[in-house]
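Notes on consecutive records. When two proteins share a document, each keeps its own sequence and its own token line. Never mix them. Below: protein one.
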Amino acid sequence: MIRERGASVGFVFGARARVYNTFDAHRLLHWASIKGRQLMLKLALLRAYHMDGKDPGKRDVLVEAAELAGLDVVAARKVLESDDYAEVRAEEREYHGMGIQSVPSVIFNNRYLVTGGQPVEAFEQAIREILAEAQPSTRG
């Protein structure tokens, strides 16, 4: 189902044989958010992993993605060679505590969770329900 949805928007998932350690990728994504380039880096990493079958745990792959995202590659290497942004581990624990066990998972208003590769209609329904809950009651 995920492959079909990806193909419908021009994203072809390549074959993959294993899951990789993405801790450094998450640290780099945190840094990229400070630089205003997180989305571009995320897209480059998704393409590298899902389409090109590259290991997002390898620093050369991460630096290449950073470059594609318009980030300074020297600064990206410095982040990867340091312990900077290790606080992403705390975020990981927080998300696990919220019940997130898979990706994609989308959290609305730090309260509502939609997990898995859901169709657009599932997100529309979730947003409608959240908005309806937020409306003040007209009964009194």
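Protein two starts on the next line and is unrelated to protein one.
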Amino acid sequence: MGKSFIIILFCFLGLGLQAQDSLCVFKTSPGVIGKLNGKKRPLQKGDFLNDKSAVYVTAPSDITLINAEGDAFNIKNVGTYSYPNLLKYKAIEDQKSLTSKYFKLIWDELLKRDSGKTIIGGVFRGDVLMEFPGDSTKTASSKLKFSWQIESDTTQYFVFIKDVANDAIHKFATNGNELVLYKDNPIFAESDTFEWAVSTSEFPNLKNIPFYTFSLIERSEYEELKSSYSDLITDLRALGLSDSEVEDTLCQTYGFCK
């Protein structure tokens, strides 16, 4: 019991130290090299840098790093950057509170990515196949693309879409990991709130499988939701994100999609 407690405590302390003394790659460019754990390799989103790490930029690039406090750092010029040097390149001097909260959320997501849990796009609900739309997503798109994870040795998947208003369930069988439906499909005619699930079984017990909720919204409601994130959008654009990348961020992180 005592040894187990010490091991658990050590793990939590290790995560705490990583959070306090690390930078995480939020965005990088092809060809940027990082020295991680004594080895050099191309830098990738989600890589963690510590005080022994370095970044090598051989051509003008655009690299954004974040820390556990939600601060962003940006490197553009050719050079070799030690960990202390990276901390000198604050990306946004007057960074908004909403932006800090966003980067903290991204930090937690990247820190926990190896655990198999998902924070962004909905509360973690166990081992489910569904990827998009995430739980509680609102979408203004006329084209609805459902996507899910692939299981080994499985070639056919069954998608269930339930109209919350009347509990009517529609079933689709498909190969691969996507199903595309359009908003003018008759199954969306009677309601604007639905649930969906994916199963490898043609006749699962629908009471025992998890469903994700999604809602259909008008473009005007999307623009209204978007306006409440204007400070974040301004900061993300300052970091070089395109309009489409900003829209993807709002969709994946906050659950409303164009």
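For the record: Residues 1-19, 116-126 have pLDDT under 50 and may be disordered.
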